[in-house]
C-alpha cells in the first residue's frame, strides 16, 4: 500500500544538519560511504513499507547523488516513485561538521537554470517535481518573471513545479504562490508547535495544489528525546512514540497530501510510519492545543539550533 508519509533526505545526504540528537543517531562515522549506506538502508525500508514520495535538494549535500544511485541500483523505473528536489540553496559545507557555513541561498533565475541542469544530470527522467527552496515574500522570487517563466517552461515539459516555504510569514508566501497560478505543490512547515500556515495551506489545497508538510517533528523537538510533557504523556497513553503522534496530528489535517519523514535511521522511519495508524480525535486536539508557540518565537528557536 502506498503511504501518505514521504521520505526527505535532508538528514542523510550530508554530515551535518539541524536535527536534535544527530550524534546519537549517526555516530562518529560521517564519511561519504557511511552516509550513502545509511541513506540506502532507509530508502530500502521506506520502499518496502510503501513510501513512494522521496524529497531531496541541491543543498542536501549528496542527497540527489545517493537517491539517483539507489534508484538505478534497485532498478526502479522513472514514474514508479514521485521524486522531488529543490533549487535555491547551494551546499558549501565541504563535508565538514564544523563548516563556517553549510549552505548559501540564491533564488535568482541563473541559479535555477544551473541547479536544474545539475539535478537533471543526476536524476534525469526520475525527476517528477522541482521546487523553489524556502521561498519567501520578501525574497522577491515570486515576483521574478524570469524565474516564473523558467518554471512554467519546465512544467510544460512534464515536470511539476512547487515551492517550499519558511519563516513566520509562510501564510503570505503560500497565498502569493497560489495567486501566480504557476505552482502544482507547496511544501511548508506545520507541526504541533507551529500551526500558523494552516489556513493558507487549506486555501492552497482548495485551489488544487498538493500540500507537502515538512518538519512535522520540529527538527527533533517533537521526538521522544525532546517532546514537551503534554505530547509525551499523550503518546504514553496511546502506546505510541511522540514522533508518531506528532505526525498523526499532521495527517489529521484534511488539506495534507503528504507528510515527510526526515528519519536518519530505519528505526526512526518505522516509528514515523506508525503515524498513519494513530487515531486522532477532538480530545487529542484539545489536549495538545496549548503546545502552539508564537511563530516568531518558534522560528527564532529553530534558527538557534546547532548544526551537528
UniProtKB/TrEMBL annotation:
**Stretches assigned to the NADP-dependent oxidoreductase domain:** 39-282
Can you name this protein?
A: Oxidoreductase
> Which classification does the entry list for the species?
Bacteria, Bacillati, Actinomycetota, Actinomycetes, Streptosporangiales
A Pfam family for this UniProt protein? Aldo_ket_red
Q: Which domain of life is it from?
A: Bacteria
Originating species: Planotetraspora silvatica
Q: Which InterPro entries match?
A: AKR2_Oxidoreductase, NAD(P)_OxRdtase_dom_sf, NADP_OxRdtase_dom
